[in-house]
Amino acid sequence: MPETKKKHKKSTRKSEEEIKKKNKKRIIIIICILLLIIAAIVIFLIMRRPKRVMNEENYKKISEEMDAQVQEGYFETYMNTEWTFPDGASESTNAILGNSPNNKKPIRCEILLEETEEVIFSTGVLPVGAELPPFKLDVDLDAGTYDAVCMVYLLNEEDDGSYTDYSNAGFNVTITVEN
User: Fold this and answer.
1) Residues forming a β-bridge with 153
2) Is the pLDDT of residue 65 over 80?
3) How many other β-carbons are positioned within 10 Å of the β-carbon of residue 86?
4) pLDDT of residue 155
5) pTM recorded for the entire structure
6) Which DSSP helix (H) or strand (E) runs through 175?
7) How far is 64 from 153, CA to CA, in rounded Å?
8) Do residues 155 and 108 make contact, with C-beta atoms less than 8 angstroms apart?
9) In 10 A of CB 123, how many CB atoms?
10) What percent of the chain has pLDDT over 90?
11) What is the CATH number of the domain that holds 75?
């Protein structure tokens, strides 16, 4: 009989160890599930956060809110990214493009068609705080929607009064020519 008891004790130990292992696995699984749920909630909240849309009415206010000092070589610009032209030879009805008053240097801009890299518009020098008035494209585009890139160049003024490019950044723009 004592042998039976020993066997019984061994099986009890074994089952206790199995139970502990199962409990550890369950705890790990529960922790993983909780982490996934938390990650999903965080992603959901980030995606739901309202996006701040810049338009003609609020761009000056947004620009004023961005009053942090602009570091050398960095610059700010304010612009919208969907431009509409009644036809290929007319001024845009809604394009906004300007050099932030927070900048220390003037800028210039070029608009390039994304597909061909053809320059379809170039500005002159835009002083700090200046906004480009309504403009026509330099190229008469047919009716349609075009993906473009607005290249903005920060400029250095040379001793002779000319300007050289100092740094640049590109922004995607959608151009719609209605007729």
Assistant:
1) 108, 168
2) no
3) 14
4) 94
5) 0.60
6) strand 163-177
7) 22
8) yes
9) 18
10) 54
11) 2.60.40.2550
Q: Closest by alpha carbon to 108, among 96, 95, 125?
A: 125
Please check whether residues 44 and 82 belong to one and the same domain: no
33 with 82, same domain: the answer is: no
Over residues 12-20, the mean pLDDT reads: 75
Q: Round the CA-based radius of gyration of the chain to a whole number and report it.
A: 31
User: Which pLDDT band holds residue 32 (cuts at 50, 70, 90)?
Assistant: confident
Pull the structure tokens for residue 48.
């739901």
Distances from the Cα of 119 to the Cα of 13, 82, 104, 164, angstroms: 80, 17, 26, 19
DSSP, res 158: P
Q: Report whether 99 contacts 59 (CB < 8 A).
A: no
Closest CA to 104 of 156, 169, 59, 61: 156
- Name the band, by pLDDT with cuts 50, 70 and 90, for residue 141: very high
Number of domains observed in the structure of the chain: 2
Whole-number Cα distances in Å, 114 to 79, 169, 171: 18, 15, 11
Here the tokens at position 74 are 């960095």
- Pairing assessment for the beta strands 77-79 and 97-99 based on DSSP bridges: antiparallel
